[in-house]
């Protein structure tokens, strides 16, 4: 009899802790980005100059988190044609859309990824090193639907693993 009460208390504590962790991972750390916020101003990198420039977008819906630089996701549309974009902006090799929480229904990473592989959508470099080692990637469909996310680049992969930055990477930020 004396072991039942502590067992029940441990089970209740475990359920509360598990529920709390689930909530924080799926809801708690994400904030919706207002369309007027600086983070909602999508930029795309020009093929000739190599610098990001504002992209013409409409209907922005986005989420982000201060807890990780790769939690950014966005859905929007553009009137820019894919044909014009491929001649004007840098395409992105090896795009890997990051999954979004189920409650952010406009962003389906599996579908976007499959469409990128099938050539139904085209990936572009939004902003390289939007924060060190992280690129903003934009996927655009011929019908104008577009999606953006943050993805770890080659510099970030090495530095975040504790290795030296590869040739051609900007200097890694100093850590204390």
Question: If you had to describe this structure to a student in words, what would you say it looks like?
Answer:
With 176 residues, this protein is α+β, with helices and mostly antiparallel strands. The protein is 28% helix and 27% strand. It has four helices and eight strands. A six-stranded antiparallel β-sheet has the order 1-4-5-8-7-6. It has a two-stranded antiparallel sheet with strand order 2-3. Strand 6 and strand 7 (134-141) form a beta hairpin.
Key features?
4 helices; two-stranded antiparallel ribbon; 176 residues; 8 strands; single chain; alpha+beta
- The rounded Rg comes to 20 Å
| Poorly predicted ranges | none
Number of E-state strands? 8
For the largest beta-sheet, the strand count, sense and barrel status come to: 6 strands, antiparallel
Average pLDDT: 90
Q: What's the layout of helices and strands?
A:
Layout: H1 4-28, E1 31-33, E2 43-45, E3 52-54, E4 58-64, E5 73-77, H2 82-88, H3 109-118, E6 121-131, E7 134-141, E8 145-152, H4 154-160
Antiparallel strand pairs: 1-4, 2-3, 4-5, 5-8, 6-7, 7-8
